[in-house]
């Protein structure tokens, strides 16, 4: 018999809800991927890369050209300098980058703090490293972090804190004050920060993305994770990145080289060129804000309650005025009976029933209109 290293892990809710959506022909606003196409120019760049025979192993750390482009992007956006030669690594998606960072620094018995509801890869990655996951629940009304509670939770076994901003699933964005509180705790206690910033370019209204790269104390002690898939509507290409100080990156690369060694070569060639045009990422917030506003404008007279997402491409809807059902049961019923799939967020936190569902608005306009009409009729 196998002694499972993850005995309590089952099929993720994303797979469950997407499978249910396919089975019942529902509009799938559950899993976080765009239903529209990426830029034809980017498609042509990858075709050219393949035609020009960039089809063998790329350098382990990633092509120098894409690392240079990424270094320029980070400097332009956050004023931070990361050296392409020893502080940047291209990864097989952001999840691989998160897993690699955790394996690089977490030893058996080490504690890692993270905030729930949380992306579901954090906990098993900590467990596989022999670490102890220490979840701290965010306020389910406004998804604020109680930094006094975080300070009280830090122990002599704590080695790292994982943050995610813009936040999935709530769509909230950490403030400058949040980042300063985090920085003080990280520096004072000698911790490492793993900053999941995959939605960094998807921020709305007057909000601003606060990258760990913008805070000197955090920059020196952080692995910062990004996603080309989220930025350029290419989630299936599974390409992301990690930036970190030279000392941290040295440990990251030790794990990375034996986990995947290198990442898809033609995709790197294409992205290196595509990154040279800043509007491709600078215009992303306005692009998704229009979709968020369209979706919410159609729901303004519905029985759902909501605060507009500050970032990411997810919107939470509170259904407490409609039913007392558990969010998992309600999400499944909506999929089967009303033909619209969402994600219940209680599965990502200790709160057993938040009465909130997560909807992805990275979809074609006609899908959002059709989905909103279904929800408005409830």
Automatic annotation (TrEMBL):
Alphabetized InterPro entries for the sequence: Aminotransferase_I/II_large, Kynurenine-oxoglutarate_AT, PyrdxlP-dep_Trfase, PyrdxlP-dep_Trfase_major, PyrdxlP-dep_Trfase_small
Keywords tagged on the record: Aminotransferase, Pyridoxal phosphate, Transferase
Pfam family, any one: Aminotran_1_2
Any Gene Ontology CC annotation: cytoplasm
Entry keyword annotation includes Transferase: yes
Domain (Aminotransferase class I/classII large): residue spans on this chain: 27-371
Broad EC category: transferase
EC number: 2.6.1.1
GO MF annotation terms: kynurenine-oxoglutarate transaminase activity; L-aspartate:2-oxoglutarate aminotransferase activity; pyridoxal phosphate binding
Cofactor (UniProt): pyridoxal 5'-phosphate
NCBIfam families on file: PRK09082.1 (NF006569)
Family, similarity comment: Belongs to the class-I pyridoxal-phosphate-dependent aminotransferase family.
Protein name (Swiss-Prot/TrEMBL): Aspartate aminotransferase
Native organism: Nonlabens tegetincola
């Amino acid at each position: 018999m196998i002694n499972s290293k993850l005995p309590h892990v089952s099929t993720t809710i994303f797979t469950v809800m997407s499978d249910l959506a396919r089975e019942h022909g529902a509009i799938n606003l559950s899993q976080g991927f765009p239903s529209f196409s990426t830029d034809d120019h980017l498609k042509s760049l990858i075709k050219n890369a393949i035609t020009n025979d960039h089809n063998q192993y790329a350098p382990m750390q990633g092509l120098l050209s894409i690392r240079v482009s990424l270094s320029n992007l980070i400097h332009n956006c956050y004023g931070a300098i990361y050296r392409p030669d020893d502080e940047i690594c291209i990864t097989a998606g952001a999840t691989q980058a998160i897993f690699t960072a955790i394996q690089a620094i977490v030893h058996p018995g080490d504690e890692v703090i993270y905030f729930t509801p949380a992306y579901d890869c954090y906990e098993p990655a900590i467990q596989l490293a022999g670490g102890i996951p220490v979840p701290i629940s965010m306020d389910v009304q406004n998804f604020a972090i109680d930094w006094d509670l975080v300070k009280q939770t830090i122990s002599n076994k704590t080695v790292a804190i994982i943050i995610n901003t813009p936040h999935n699933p709530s769509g909230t964005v950490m403030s400058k004050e949040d980042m300063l509180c985090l920085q003080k705790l990280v520096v004072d206690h000698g911790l490492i920060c793993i900053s999941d910033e995959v939605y960094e370019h998807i921020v709305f209204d007057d909000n601003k993305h606060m990258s760990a790269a913008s805070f000197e104390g955090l920059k020196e002690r952080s692995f910062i994770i990004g996603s080309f898939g989220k930025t350029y509507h290419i989630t299936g290409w599974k390409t992301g990145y990690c930036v970190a100080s030279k000392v941290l990156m040295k440990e990251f690369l030790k794990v990375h080289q034996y986990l995947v060694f290198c990442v898809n070569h033609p995709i790197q060639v294409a992205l290196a060129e595509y990154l040279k045009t800043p509007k491709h990422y600078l215009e992303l917030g306005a692009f998704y804000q229009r979709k968020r506003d369209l979706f919410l404008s159609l729901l303004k007279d519905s029985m759902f309650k909501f605060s507009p997402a500050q970032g990411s491409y997810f919107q939470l809807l509170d259904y407490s005025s409609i039913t007392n059902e558990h969010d998992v049961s309600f999400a499944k019923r909506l999929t089967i009976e009303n033909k619209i799939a969402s994600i219940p967020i209680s599965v990502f936190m200790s709160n057993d029933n938040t009465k909130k569902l997560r909807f992805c608005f990275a979809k074609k306009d006609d899908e959002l209109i059709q989905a909103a009409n279904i929800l408005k009729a409830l």
